[in-house]
């Protein structure tokens, strides 16, 4: 235990990691100095804005519409994604810690990238940020954290930062195309976040394929307590998913309806996940991998349609099928992807994000195409699909088509972007672990001396051994 | 460890669990399709409703009054109840996982049952749901999760689903009688949730009495980390209890006051719990069981009176006595219940829910009977006790009587309902574990191979043994 | 393992702990009965207040502006601080449990102390409380929990309660001087909470210096899972810090801006913490101590300036330097403090609270002094710095001076108050542990029998041993 680890100098990140952190953070400060300002609702001039716009109460500030949802989303990003990935027996530090690092960098870069594409003020050349910008930054980061799930345990923190830099950049572009150019609706990001993030991660993982990963097989399972830690992540994601899907939807009924739909869809997913998981074992035992992951698929798949009038039973149906498909994905598709397509997907993001994301895109397209004035009301239809300005003459059928087009864009950006970024990450300069040292915190973390942990329990055994030594001596 | 487990085919739930999950979920979808619709605040027609009702701002949507509380309640249901029950050394998966399953089913069934009883629109035959419906569904589920605490580790997931099906049904009926017919107030559910849920679980546990449960004694304790996990549950319940008791109280002062009272009552409970726990040990050491559970009794006991003008010191007094009674319950009453009444109460829900619930009902009745216009104001009294419509002439004294009657109803429903449901659960078809396999996740879960966990620490010992082998060989 | 522990009767707290809990809680009830009442927004007369003040909607109740932030702060106090301190291998019960106890007492005492100093109604002699009072009580408690971090594992729960009694008292006085007399702004408490709490704890720890603490060295480290538990605390503190710094700032832009600044500052801190942590190890490995603690320094340092127009890049810069300074504090300053100044600081609160708090005070003073009408607007400047009443003629430069003066007050109160309280805690009557029994839950908690935990894994070894016995017998 005191011997030097068998991996070589190549996992030494003492130069690269600090340099990347410092340089990029300084770049953020400079770019923020040049571009980012408070928007009118967070600026001290708000008192004048209020008077000017005849706003009677401070409670009309968008802050009060969105802050509770924002905080829930924030918990999903840092505790949800972070702890969901702690299931491996010896990669909890990397799961929570690197998730923390890349999300903290990513949200800054996202504010800039999304700002440039979505809200650069042409007159001042500034980006004005408020609570909705923070939510969108967290959303953008989510795409990269999903991708992290595919390569968990197999990459260095420097690689993760590079992956996040490009991931956020690609995200901002595809989001601009889907939401602004195609004018598709995707409030909870079935397409923009989950489909993109899923395929981005899978594509990177394909390029970084490790034929000898079995050499780390001993580290690839969970232990009892690591599975329990992972359930913290699962539950915070599950509970707060209604906030995720409603955080940036329309004030009033838009947020209200997105919450109800997501709440119901997720409940339905839990039952079918349990059913399939139980069916998959000889004696009907449940598998923690399914409970930790597939129970969330309904939330992913309602990311587009949650704000629509999909109706409560519609949400249940979406959740129903997603639980089935996602769990079967873990049982049948993941092994196939690994053996045939050489995609090693540590957390099974294909089953939790990519597939349900695509389903969500399709559900969104169909629901949009089937929308009618009788269900939404005349103004309700305009509000829900934002049929204003350049898009005021768009029909729901056309909208359905653009929704479907949006989904294709997110897949293409994920696959192609991931392939390119994967090639960059293949360069032998990033300090990634050897095949036999994957999934091991030992590589990048100072670990506590574990001998101490069993101090309380080992003595009886040692005592036993001592006893035997005496017996032996008697011999 | 590689041998087949000693229990027989009877814990095989590969048929029953998937069938129940699928059939019930499909039934939910059909019933939701027939009955459940968005209410006017979550429907896309809200823009028209707003215009019609002269509502000037989206922030007037009930969503913004209740969503933060809803999310806190949601966390209590899934993380709070789930993790509180992880204290057993090898039942964390069952605690968190089955809690997850039955809550997800229960909330769907609750929306229907509560809808039929409380909000079925006579004209359309539909149930219109909004954020308050979701809170009430979570509340209803809480009753069943409380009952789960009594039978934790001794039942199969199929039994839990059956228990939830009937529990939610009984809950909706007793709630209808207490809140609608008796017109009692019970915003945080001291009676409706905790008293009912507590006696329902205890009654079931009585019917399912296992005389040979001592055969599982080795599994009945906690370990250091499982106790730490349980504190996650305790704290999230404790912190968010103010949201629980205020989630469906009146807008404005009603919610505000319920929060203050619950916050104070719970703080007081912690001190007396610690005091009694320390007194109960020879050297004044504290017992984690008490800290995990009895600290919450004050929140239970303020479930009825939190919205009343019980006054801050009144809330402190309630918490003071509940901490004492609940902790003494763990020390004296639980052993008595097990030995004399043959009630095996795994989590001690009698001390945490049943007794404090009854106290809460009594406190509520007294506080209501003692209400006066000088304290509440004329309109305040009407608002707080909802003395409108059929009940506009009710006096506070009468109200106190109806509150007390409500408590009796909840006890009767719990005890009788539990006895009947317990008899159903006694049928030998549900796959429950043998007496020697209780409290063991091994029965219903694929467990990780634990040998690996100690990889880091075992080598020195094995090395020692190897060393001894060599010594032996030398001999 | 069955032998009596080696420490003597002096850690027996069976008399002192229950007596202190009971007497103090009864005192709270009496004082609350005499002094504490609901304020007008939580009183049942609110319906009349509304009519009288022409308030059109219940949503104008301060409850709806502050409740979501309050709940986040509440989570920080109980889960955040509690779990952050679970990093020690065998002090998780003490960390979470004693944190729970002293916070529950402290918030009651804080409502009284802060009430007497800040909001005693001169006419009625009453203190009227509402949601903002609860937030302030939680804030006040935070100061004492910070101090707990310095003496974690070395004091008895009775000492902690005494420390909290005096800590809350001192807090209320320094807060009154800083916020009311000096009229300094300190919404997130860089000075009032963190600087005071930090120096209060360090000063107490200095007085309680244990020259033979090395005798407990075996207990002073972490284990893998205790470090993972601590990350729960870290992340909930980190995620909810925007709520902490904005909870009592001005409605509207004040809360909105404080959230944005804190969110950004904390993100920046994470990157520089990682950079310095990696630099500090030969192979660039990260140290969990840094990730758990220093990542929070940016939130501390923005406690004063978060509500000002520090601008987004300004917040990033503050976070940038705090991550560096705090991490270097763990590497260089903590060992120096221990060796040279004899300050044993278990959690490193000097690096996480004291230093960043002072930085926050300085940043606040500079930002205030540099404020201008062009940046804030005329009315914005008045609102932000509350230049009304007696202070309507104060200039920003003067304000900067008073901010700096406030910081000095908080340091003096911390150091001098801590020295006095430390002397009281040095009396040999409080049941604190011997030098060789520090950092061990065994002293104050009934611990589960750990032998059981390894039941699953030990058998193979015992089997091995049995095998050897047979071999031996063959010999």
From TrEMBL, chains A, B, C:
<comment type="function">
    <text>Functions as an ammonia transporter. May play a role in the elimination of ammonia in the gill.</text>
</comment>
<keyword id="KW-0812">Transmembrane</keyword>
<dbReference type="GO" id="GO:0097272">
    <property type="term" value="P:ammonium homeostasis"/>
</dbReference>
<feature type="transmembrane region" description="Helical">
    <location>
        <begin position="316"/>
        <end position="337"/>
    </location>
</feature>
<keyword id="KW-0325">Glycoprotein</keyword>
<dbReference type="InterPro" id="IPR002229">
    <property type="entry name" value="RhesusRHD"/>
</dbReference>
<feature type="transmembrane region" description="Helical">
    <location>
        <begin position="127"/>
        <end position="148"/>
    </location>
</feature>
<protein>
    <submittedName>
        <fullName>Rh family C glycoprotein</fullName>
    </submittedName>
</protein>
<feature type="transmembrane region" description="Helical">
    <location>
        <begin position="70"/>
        <end position="88"/>
    </location>
</feature>
<dbReference type="InterPro" id="IPR029020">
    <property type="entry name" value="Ammonium/urea_transptr"/>
</dbReference>
<keyword id="KW-0924">Ammonia transport</keyword>
<keyword id="KW-0813">Transport</keyword>
<keyword id="KW-1133">Transmembrane helix</keyword>
<dbReference type="GO" id="GO:0005886">
    <property type="term" value="C:plasma membrane"/>
</dbReference>
<keyword id="KW-1003">Cell membrane</keyword>
<keyword id="KW-0472">Membrane</keyword>
<feature type="transmembrane region" description="Helical">
    <location>
        <begin position="15"/>
        <end position="36"/>
    </location>
</feature>
<comment type="subunit">
    <text>Homotrimer.</text>
</comment>
<dbReference type="GO" id="GO:0008519">
    <property type="term" value="F:ammonium channel activity"/>
</dbReference>
<feature type="transmembrane region" description="Helical">
    <location>
        <begin position="260"/>
        <end position="279"/>
    </location>
</feature>
<feature type="domain" description="Ammonium transporter AmtB-like">
    <location>
        <begin position="62"/>
        <end position="443"/>
    </location>
</feature>
<feature type="transmembrane region" description="Helical">
    <location>
        <begin position="291"/>
        <end position="310"/>
    </location>
</feature>
<feature type="transmembrane region" description="Helical">
    <location>
        <begin position="404"/>
        <end position="425"/>
    </location>
</feature>
<feature type="transmembrane region" description="Helical">
    <location>
        <begin position="191"/>
        <end position="209"/>
    </location>
</feature>
<feature type="transmembrane region" description="Helical">
    <location>
        <begin position="160"/>
        <end position="179"/>
    </location>
</feature>
<feature type="transmembrane region" description="Helical">
    <location>
        <begin position="221"/>
        <end position="240"/>
    </location>
</feature>
<feature type="transmembrane region" description="Helical">
    <location>
        <begin position="349"/>
        <end position="371"/>
    </location>
</feature>
<comment type="similarity">
    <text>Belongs to the ammonium transporter (TC 2.A.49) family. Rh subfamily.</text>
</comment>
<feature type="transmembrane region" description="Helical">
    <location>
        <begin position="95"/>
        <end position="115"/>
    </location>
</feature>
<dbReference type="Pfam" id="PF00909">
    <property type="entry name" value="Ammonium_transp"/>
</dbReference>
<dbReference type="InterPro" id="IPR024041">
    <property type="entry name" value="NH4_transpt_AmtB-like_dom"/>
</dbReference>
